[in-house]
Every structure is written in structure tokens, then in C-alpha cells.
Amino acid sequence: MTDRHTLLSSIASEADRDISIASLFEAETDRLSRFVMREGPLRADFSKQALDDAALAALLDLAAKCDLEEWRAKLFSGERVNTSEDRAVLHMALRGVGGTAENKAEVAAMRQRLADYADAIRSEGKFKNIIHIGIGGSDLGPRLVADAFEASADQALTLRFAENVDGASVNDAVKGLNPAETLAVVVSKSFGTQETKMNGESVRDWLGEFGSSNMIAVTANRDGAEAFGISGENIFDFWDWVGGRYSVWSAVGLSLQIAYGPDVFADFLDGARAMDLHFRDQPLQENLPVMMALVGIWNRNGLGYGSQAVIPYARRLRKFSAFLQQLEMESNGKSATRAGKATTLTCPVIWGDEGTNGQHAFFQWLHQGPSEGRYGGAPVDFVAVLKDHEDRPAHHTALLANCFAQSEALMLGKSEDVVRAEMGGHADVDALAPQKSFPGNRPSTTLTLDALSPNALGHLIALYEHKTFVQGVIWDVNSFDQWGVQLGKVLATTILDEMDAGQSGIHDASTTALMQLAIS
Ligand code: F6P
Fold it and tell me: Could you give the dihedral angle defined by the CA atoms of residues 286, 291, 293 and 299, in that order, rounded to the nearest 10 degrees?
């Protein structure tokens, strides 16, 4: 097999020519039908990417040479594709797709237990508030989904989150709540995460006499949760084949089930299941997550972009870029291949914020800023919701108009000649025209959801999960480990012990001075 450096440099060679996106629309009258894909409520428009048929053919050839179909089959069959941790990767089994008979049985039993528990809490009426304690994958998914469920579902209990070890996180979570009416859900796959254990202890102190009865745990480390003081019948398990950043579909979503109801959560799982089946069964050239991944490879390895913006034009998806930062950067932000060799360029920086807010902040850079990418700025994924869930049609139309205008402006730009013509004989035309012109030809994808339903949200998140997997296969990295988070954790433990003891230990001069500032 040809090595990845050679394969990916052939993509760079293919991309080393000027492609005008606007001209592609003129030349290809059927461009829209060829570059738009749909799965259920999710439509993806890739037509504003700097991508033509030759590029697409090269990318599909790359996918074949990287054995993508074989890797996809391995993933769904439950093979141990997380090689460095020797684990299968089966978050799709939580949605009823893939895995062994044993996986299916344990998932079905747990789904029933979670739904029964959520129903009981909801009908009992004792609890009015939930504090969900967890960080990273034990926080970002539930937090994103809770915001998004607000569009279409009724929240029966107040749902607060405590993630950061900063005391402000716990203080904000408990503020104004009555311990007698509050259920704390401690969520940690490992049950070894410093932030979560400390927040769990502080919330237990705050619960006072209700500490043991008002606290449950969600974990893949039952012993750890018991050692923390949570009794066995209050522990909800998940499995080592569910990665933290892929875990919102598991018992990690229990707070969501309690707050919004098991039926809403089941719709969310069904939406992801539809995307799983699409990804598993569609040929590569008609496969939405594959297309999304290949477009990303084109922008990263072909056009040389170092970052990817994700801008949801939906306030209730405002955590989406933060969620994707973990999903994509923790999965594929790696420099060593599965075999321990140096990779070529892998995951770009993922960033973004909600539209329209971003238009009044970083869009200046998107439209006119330079970057190492061939056409400047950064590729953007726009995400819009077609249905108005807020009963404010004028606002909704304005929101969508802004979204559509931005992708058009990024593509079309405004040439210096046009600006000069508009300025006529202005005395400062030579100085001003370059400042007022827009290079354009900046690539974007627009994803639309028919509605922000739980089902559509399931489609959206699963789309990015599978995109991440495909890119990991092409970059030849293990997308399911995260060794890069370890070193800082270890050093933080050492530094914390030393600071607790009032000493600064042996460190570089800068670190020592910082520690002394804090302990003196
Ligand atoms: O530090 C990174 C990480 O290990 C993530 O991968 C994970 O989602 C997060 O910490 C939280 O881990 P846990 O669920 O084990 O507390």
C-alpha cells in the first residue's frame, strides 16, 4: 500500500491550481444536484466548496486506497479499532446499530433501566432540579443536547451543569436550589477525573443530610463510583467501548432523559441511528459523512487550511463548535500514526460561535483576513434550522437571511475593480479600494435541518461522528484514544500536592515563580 504521505501529497498536487467556485456554478448547470445530499431532515450543500469533479474523483480514489470500506466494516462489526487501548468502538450500538448479540442485550437492558428510572423520577415529583456533574465528553454532549431540546421539548426539571474545577462552576450550579429537591448526577467514565470528583464532593457537602440519597452516578468504573460513596443500586453503567466524546447516547444522557423524558431521548437516538445506517450502507460517493470528511481533507491537505469554522445560525446550537472541538480535535489532533510513524497534516483547529453574533466579531477575518489556506480565511460549516421554534417569524427570516448572505458573500467577494468603479474619482481610491474589496472564493458548506427536533439533532451529531472516523482512517490515526491529555493531568496532580503542602518542588523558574505567587 502506498504510504499516506505520498497519497495525501497527491491531493495537494491536485489542489495546486486555481478553482473559482463561482465559475463552477456557471460551468456546471447541475452542480447543485450533484453537490447536495440529504438524509432525513438533514440537507448538506457542498456546492460552495472549491471542489470540482476531478478533485472529487481524486478524493474518492484516496478513500479507496486508504481501505475506507474495510475500516467501516471493522467499526460496525465491533473489531477492536481502538488499537492503542485494545477496545472496540460501538457507540452506534447504543442506537441499535452494530455490535455483538451480547452488546445488544446489555444496551437493551440499560435503555429500559434508564427509561424506567427517568419516568419514576418525573412522576414521583420529589426532585425539581438536576445537577449534572462531569467534564469533557461527560459534559459537552449533554449540555449541547439540553440546549437544543429546548427548541421542541418541555423541560420538567431544572437542569444545571457543573464541569470546571473552578469553584464558580459549583457555586453557579447550586445557587438558589433547595438540596431536598435536588438530584446530583455524577458522570465520569473513568471515575478518576479530578474536576468531577472535586465537584461531586462539594455538591455532596452542599446536599448535607440528603447527600447519599440524592446522588447517583453514571460510569464505566463501578468500583470507583462505589469507593466515592455511591451505592450500587444508584450506579448506571456504560462500557469501555463507548468513548467519552461519543457517550451522550449512553447512560451519560440520563440527566436529559429525566429532564425531557425518555421518549424525546428515544427520538434523538433514532435520528442518529438513521445516520448510522446511511453511513454503513451507502456507497462512498453517495455517503454524506464520507463526503463531509473528504471535503475536510481537501481543505486541509489539498488547500492547506489550518482551521475550520463551524457557525450554527441557531442559538440553541451555540455549544456545537465547543462540542466539535472535543469530538474532532481530541479524536484526530494527533501526529503519530497507528504504527507510530509521523503523520502528515491531520485535524485542523475547529472553532466558531453562534451566528449572527460572530458576524460582529471574527467575520472580518473570515472575509478579508489572510491565512495559510490557498484562498485565505477558513472554510466554514454553516448550520441553519428551517423551522421557527420561537414563534418569531420575522426574527427567524432575518436569521436565515444572514446565514445565506454570508456564504454567498464569502464565495462571490467583491473585486477591487468593482470597488474602484463605485468610488469614481475619489481622491483616495488607491488607498481605499484594496481595503474595501473582498477576495471571495472562500469555501463553505451549508447544513440545514428541517427543524431542530431531537431526531434531526441525532442526525447532525452522528454525521460529525462518522466524518471524524473517516478522516481518522485517511490520516491513519487512532481516533479513539487521547494520550495527549495525560501529561498535563499528571503534572497538575504533582503541582497540586506541592501547593497543598505549601512547597514549590523542582520546576523551571517560571513555573516555580507562579506557584509561589499562589501559595505565598
Ligand atoms: O481529559 C480528557 C478526557 O479523558 C476526555 O476524553 C473525557 O471525555 C473527559 O476527560 C472526562 O473523562 P471522564 O468521563 O472519565 O471523567
Answer: 160
Instruction: At 438, give phi and psi (nearest 5°).
Output: -125, 125
Q: What is the pLDDT of residues 260-310, one digit of tens each?
A: 999 999 999 999 999 999 999 999 999 999 999 999 999 999 999 999 999
360 part of the active site: yes
The pLDDT, as a whole number, for residue 520 is 82
Catalytic residue at 330?
yes
Q: Are residues 116 and 170 in the same domain?
A: yes
Q: Which residue has the CA at smallest separation from atom 8 of ligand 1?
A: 137
Give per-residue pLDDT as tens, 116-173. Answer: 999 999 999 999 999 999 999 999 999 999 999 999 999 999 999 999 999 999 999 9
Give the residue, out of 196, 242, 485, 491, with the most ligand 1 atoms within 8 A of its beta carbon, to mutate for a pocket test: 485
Cα–Cα distance for residue pair 244/128, rounded to 1 Å: 28
> Among 195, 330, 354, 465, which one carries the catalytic annotation?
330
**Do 152 and 117 reside in the same domain of the chain?**
yes
Is residue 170 included in any domain, yes or no? yes
Range of the domain at 347: 4-65+282-475
Q: Is residue 78 part of a domain?
A: no
List the beta bridge partners of residue 215.
184
- Pocket around ligand 1 at a 6 A CB cut-off: 135-138, 188-190, 193, 196, 244-245, 330, 482, 485
pLDDT of residue 2: 64
Is the Cβ–Cβ distance between 380 and 410 less than 8 Å? yes
80-110 tens-digit pLDDT: 999 999 999 999 999 999 999 999 999 999 9
Q: Which helix (H) or strand (E) holds 201?
A: helix 194-207
Q: How many Cα atoms within 13 Å fall on the side-chain side of residue 85?
A: 14
| pTM listed for this prediction | 0.97
